[in-house]
Specification:
Blueprint: H1 11-14, H2 20-30, E1 35-36, H3 50-65, H4 70-78, H5 88-99, E2 108-111, H6 113-125, E3 131-137, H7 141-150, E4 153-158, H8 166-178, E5 182-188, H9 202-214, E6 218-222, H10 238-241, E7 247-252, E8 264-267, E9 271-273, E10 279-281, H11 282-293, H12 299-311, H13 316-319, H14 321-342, E11 348-349, E12 357-361, H15 368-378, E13 380-381, E14 383-384, E15 397-401, H16 407-422
Parallel strand pairs: 1-13, 3-4, 3-5, 5-6, 6-7
Antiparallel strand pairs: 2-8, 7-8, 9-10, 11-12, 12-15, 14-15
């Protein structure tokens, strides 16, 4: 019988940060009665299996009204399809309505979740052994995990208490070049970041675009939480402020529709020119990578999402009003519960202006072992912040999520957390 040495497998297999998602899923399954302030998934009650067939029928009606024959419509949903997808025009129209982003449909690649979009962007941009990606730190583990699989180095750009600072980006880019590396792009989540919850002011967004231009960096803008602010204040995406096509926009329908569809997208409208002078668009060039990963995104899932977008009048913001109200209430409940249980203690926390997450600094080592005790003896789950640091950090901090539970559970979960930390 063949026996493989675990240490001989690729580094991404044994890397604890890359394994963090599996670890959190596993501990949640072992303690199903624990209140999860760890899960960043959407609230289940917003999802209905009946919507799947409804939205497929809406999409088929849309095709029929455009003069597409029944046979072509059948093949569109049941056969292999165009690598970059068949709902790019609908996504582009939605981005125009909701985010004031104007791009041609050809600039949109439909991906199997936003995770695939990250892999494709990293692989396409980082072509040499010295190419690296800068990332706001603490950083979403999906990005660092994808980079680990590809063998691409991620260099953390430390956030301050109020978010990523342009001068820090410049300093890290310079230091990276000084050690012989070539920074190609900067990854960040400008709206209610995962995990920090921080949202960047508009002047900072403009200054980051200027810093990226000065440092010759592309920007990978990930925006899964932009709909879910505590108020209706406009928060323009970096892509909508982008005047020289420096931003590659990464999107997902996991939070705004449902994650089981596994539909994400990237917008890459950057011009590409080859040695012969032939001009193409970056999204078209990246299709070669996607074709070798997933061939094409599920045609059925695309039809479901396409029908939803049509049904919503091409506005996710309008279609998500009930979710927006629910997540606002949950975040306010979490912040109020933290004030009630931890005011006057050594525990500190930030106060995000939206999104799903709050970060708490705690006077203990927030380890996986402590999480096990928390789940088993106190019935509450949370996420160690150390998972979100490239080179170490976050040892005395935890991330709390308020998206997947209702207000009474949030209150009870914080009470249980207070009992754990008191002990």
């Amino acid at each position: 019988m063949v026996v493989l040495a675990r240490e001989a497998l690729h580094a991404s297999v044994i890397d604890p940060v890359s394994a963090s998602m599996n670890f959190l899923n596993e501990i949640a399954m072992r303690y199903p009665d624990a209140i999860s302030l760890a899960a960043g998934r959407p609230f289940e009650a917003f999802h209905s299996a009946a919507d799947i067939d409804k939205h497929i029928q809406v999409y088929l009606t849309h095709l029929r009204e455009r003069g597409v024959s029944a046979a072509v419509s059948r093949d569109l949903l049941t056969q292999y399809g165009r690598t970059n997808g068949h709902i790019g025009d609908l996504i582009a129209r939605t981005l125009d309505v909701d985010e004031n982003i104007q791009v041609p449909a050809a600039a949109v690649m439909v991906t199997t979740g936003c995770q695939e979009a990250m892999v494709i962007a990293l692989r396409g941009l980082c072509s040499g052994p010295d190419d690296v990606v800068l990332a706001a730190e603490p950083c979403y583990v999906g990005l660092t995990g994808a980079a680990r699989i590809l063998g691409v180095e991620v260099v953390g750009v430390p956030e301050s208490d109020d978010g990523l600072r342009p001068e820090t980006v410049r300093a890290v880019a310079a230091a990276t070049r000084a050690r012989g590396k070539n920074p190609k792009a900067l990854y960040l989540v400008p709206n209610f970041a995962n995990p920090s919850g921080i949202s960047l002011p508009v002047p900072v967004r403009r200054a980051l675009l200027a810093a990226a231009a000065d440092e010759d960096l592309l920007i990978l803008e990930d925006d899964p939480y932009g709909l879910f602010g505590l108020d209706d204040e406009p928060r323009p995406t970096l892509k909508s402020l982008d005047r020289d096509q420096r931003v590659i926009y990464l999107g997902s329908f996991a939070k705004s529709y449902f994650p089981g569809a596994r539909v994400g997208f990237l917008v890459a409208d950057q011009p590409v020119v080859d040695r012969a002078g032939r001009h193409t668009m970056l999204a078209e060039e990246l299709s070669t990578i996607k074709s070798m990963l997933t061939v094409n995104t599920s045609a059925l899932s695309q039809a479901v999402v396409g029908g939803m977008l049509i049904d919503a009048g091409f506005s996710l913001r309008a279609a998500n009003q009930a979710k927006i109200a629910f997540y606002r209430q949950n975040l306010r409940t979490l912040l109020a519960a933290l004030q009630r249980h931890f005011a006057g203690t050594a525990v500190r926390w930030n106060s995000p202006s939206g999104g799903f997450f709050v970060v708490c600094t705690v006077p203990v080592d927030a380890s996986e072992e402590l999480l096990e005790v928390s789940a088993q003896e106190y019935g509450v789950l949370w996420t160690p912040m150390r998972f979100f640091y490239v080179g170490g950090g976050g040892t005395h901090a935890i991330r709390l999520s308020c998206s997947a539970v209702e207000p009474p559970q949030i209150e009870d979960g914080v009470r249980r957390l207070a009992a754990l930390l008191s002990r």
